[in-house]
Amino acid sequence: MKKSVFSKSFTQQEAIPEHGIEQAVQVMRTGRLHRYNTLSGETAAAAKLEQEYAAYMGQSYCLACTSGGYALHIALKAAGIRTGDAVLCNAFTLAPVPGAIDNAGGKPVLVEIDGNYCVDLNHLEAMMQQSRARFFMLSHMRGHIADMNAVVALCRQYEVTLIEDCAHTMGASWDGKKSGSFGKIACFSTQTYKHLNSGEGGLLITDDDIVMARAIIYSGSYMLYERHGTLPAAEVFADIRLDTPNYSGRMDNLRATILLAQLPALAENCARWNARYQALEKRLSKNPRIQLAQRPALESYVGSSLQFRVEALDPRQVSAFMSSCARRGVELKWFGGAEPQGFTSRYDSWRYIGKTPPLPQTLAILATTFDLRIPLTFSIEDMEQIGSIIDDEVGSILDR
Questions:
Q1: What is the three-class DSSP state of 214?
Q2: Does the global pTM surpass 0.90?
Q3: Domains in the chain and their CATH numbers?
């Protein structure tokens, strides 16, 4: 019997809304792509985006940046990191997170994860005590949100500044509070595979006057900081504007225009992602040999990707399983490989951070963890077919 093959691309995103394309073309026709190149009385698209995203998040300030990784870098700088400072971060994350810590002069201190791909709270507390770190860059990796009430309580107890990496949780929440509203600073990505798509881009939010003033100057505002969409009072900048270096990481008006067109549909698109995620999750849950993350009742997630484990697979079978799925058109990523592949890498391949203590729990979890994107170009029926293929190939490999 011939096996079914899935034919759609896992990297094909939906088109930018037509009105966003029209507005982007208009920006190009003006030639005024730079965020500070405005006519008298005109508000730049980048400034409008800052206003609208701050309002969406219920935060005082938003800064539009070149990338999510850049936003993480200047978040640490604006929070007052010093060269050599320890910065806690979960061991399961993407390379731009430790990269941002290194770029800011910090030293990553890795924390174990639990079986639901969230930071392990017991190990987090132990590392807070051991490292005496002043910062915790919490990555809500692949959209999995830890118990944020517990995380905030630990940060308060040990006087640790919480910075949230919300690259995968735009539109998500914990206990009714938006992801990104728990720390002193939060950073979001608008890279192509995120919940808003500008190719590359980032958004930094905060309620802190000093942090925001520093971040604006770090972003490369020169003395044009008053043209930002959300900013503290002028007196806050009096010394900061002279004491803070320019790292040139501004978002341009073209990308901001594209994002402004997508923001009104964010809630609707989050619901569409979840419908697809839940269809796949339901199909995979029928196979007892597939382990899925347990989603807490307090978590309102955005399922733009799904992770699962097949703990019965040995290393040889992992490779065979991925290859067999690929032959049937299902593109899986594996986070357990010793060598980096594409966007995926394991923490022990980041050799520039120096020798790290063993993290056996994280290694064991990642050894059989598979990941797949869920583009909105897929239908519910597509997700059911993908689930059927994965289910079938798990059986084929383990029953040989």
A1: helix
A2: yes
A3: 18-264 (3.40.640.10), 266-398 (3.90.1150.10)
